Amino acid sequence: MFDTLSDRLSAAFKNLRGKGKLTDADIDATAREIRIALLEADVALPVVKEFIAAVKERAGGAEVRGGLNPAQQVIKIVNDELVTILGGETRELRMAKRPPTVIMLAGLQGAGKTTLAGKLAKWLKETQHQTPMLVAADLQRPNAVTQLQVVGDRAGVPVFAPEPGNGVGDPVQVARLAMDEARTKQYSVVIVDTAGRLGVDEVLMKQAADIRDAVNPDEILFVVDAMIGQDAVTTAQAFLDGVGFDGVVLSKLDGDARGGAALSIAQVTGRQVMFASNGEKLEDFDVFHPDRMASRILGMGDVMSLIEKAEQSFDAGEAAKTAAKLQKKGGKDFTLDDFLAQMQSVRKMGPLTKIFGMLPGAAQFKDQLENFDEREIDRIEAVIHSMTPAERNDPNILNGSRRLRIANGSGTEVATVSGLVERFFEARKMMSAMASGKGMPGMPGMPGMPGAGGGGKKAKQQAKKGKAKRVSGNPAKRANQGSGQPAEPQPGQLPAAFGGGAAADDFELPDDLKNMLGGK
Asked: What is the pTM of this model?
């Protein structure tokens, strides 16, 4: 959703590279590019004006004009202001002192309230260790009650639905009965799914207000379709005036529409975005972190979310055993069975394109990521499953006839089997080096990590054959190049891992990863 905005912002910052100081003309030109990028992304005009004014005021400060790397400091300023308009700090759910905590969902029809109710319930159950109950108070939309029951069943959460819906029943009475049910059966959270309309009208507002008064919710969450652009802000303001709400949930954040709603709604309504729904599955649901979203928009990745997903997907005990195997005997105890188990754990984190997209600098490989075929992982699994236990334990015994048998058994070519075996040996070598503290082979530009970028004999020979070393235009870096020491980041400059120091164009993925993505 934010790809176009990210590309335009990156282009605006590119013009600042190599400048020792920022002039008023530089600041005005950059601000103009940022303004156009935000307006094209469908961000509300008042938000754009406020954002640009704040960036220009800070960028015109003495600390930037006297800085040695103003481009990176401007990126930092834009990042800070993006975090501000996205809501500042992450806001958590308010839980009632005496259960049950009541959460009421409101919004227009088609915004995704019913599906989101299941996602929220599953998240509360699995990560917050709550016992949620869903309430079918949307009795108007055809089959809304049935849909909620199906969603609740998939999430493993009970659904309170005393009325069949389809225009039959009183939603306010259902909401009252649900509270008695929750107290009797000691559910800790009640999630009330309410009816929507195709547009804001008095009937919708009256019914939502009546349900609110009947259950006295601890949180009213306004669910908005992130793909409807400027109308999202208008609708949110109407609901805020008519019913009131405490937080916003953005649905369909995985769409390809312009993402101005997310950048506008918190600033215009004064209510923070709390959750984001970014897919069809019940697992495609995240807490909305303004700082992480700003980092993604600026192409700096989202390492914290990546770590959290890994913690949920990987078993600590199994990870420790795998690490022990990689540390001993040069990693020779690490088998194809272990390799397959690691791959399956990574797949639990979600589509690989999304995982790679969270890495800093991944925006440069957007085309490769979009063209990456997830079925390639299925083919790898088929090849490994076609091997005997002895072959998975020791791939060195795979001769020509064995590889032909495996290829026939997995429906692939012999070249595919051979390529997998070669990649396995390379991956084992790299992971063994990392587990032993020797750094990451084949990852240039990582100072302080032995074995990374020129530690070996072969790398030194390649360095001699290569072109003459480029001299930096940055005076501090040029001085440090002569002393052989890496340049220290300047005040306000981002670390190298997040685009600071070296230019983003110099960033490269390891060859194995580029090959997996179909790059050359």
From this structure: 0.64
